[in-house]
Write a structure and sequence with these properties.
Blueprint lengths: L1 E6 L2 E4 L4 E9 L2 E11 L6 E6 L5 E3 L7 E6 L4 E6 L8 E11 L6 E4 L3 E6 L1
Parallel strand pairs: 2-11
Antiparallel strand pairs: 1-3, 3-8, 4-5, 4-9, 5-6, 7-8, 9-10, 9-11
């Protein structure tokens, strides 16, 4: 019912750039795109960037000044522009959203399928 489709990952050299996108859809659901997380091999999933309904943003210290999160509300899509990539950025990146059935009362957390980002030194 609720679907988050991610794209834009790939293999890049250190210092390069990638742009990730996540498009949300859901019949009879209200969906609020929230941000991006990542999970490195053998590591835990960690928050990378968040964006709220009025456009306010927050970033993990490790990506501040290099990554930018944005939304296009008319397309129900969230983006993550990643510049000056480092090998430490290598991870699977996931977008997440909160969604609620139009007739319901509770919000639930949803995740995209993930997209692999690999940065070579």
């Amino acid at each position: 019912q609720v679907q988050l489709v991610e794209s834009g990952g790939g293999l890049v050299q250190a210092g390069g750039s990638l742009r990730l996108s996540c498009a949300a859809s859901g019949t009879l659901f209200s969906i609020n795109l929230k941000g991006w997380y990542r999970q490195a091999p053998g590591g835990q999933r960690e928050l990378v960037a968040v964006i709220n309904s009025d456009g306010g943003t927050n970033y993990a210290d490790s990506v501040k000044g290099r990554f930018t999160i944005s939304k296009v509300n008319t397309k129900n899509t969230v983006y993550l522009q990643m510049n000056t990539l480092k090998p430490e950025d290598t991870a699977v990146y996931y977008c997440n959203a909160a969604a609620k059935a139009t007739y319901g009362t509770f919000w639930y957390d949803y995740w995209g399928q993930g997209t692999q980002v690999t940065v070579s030194s």
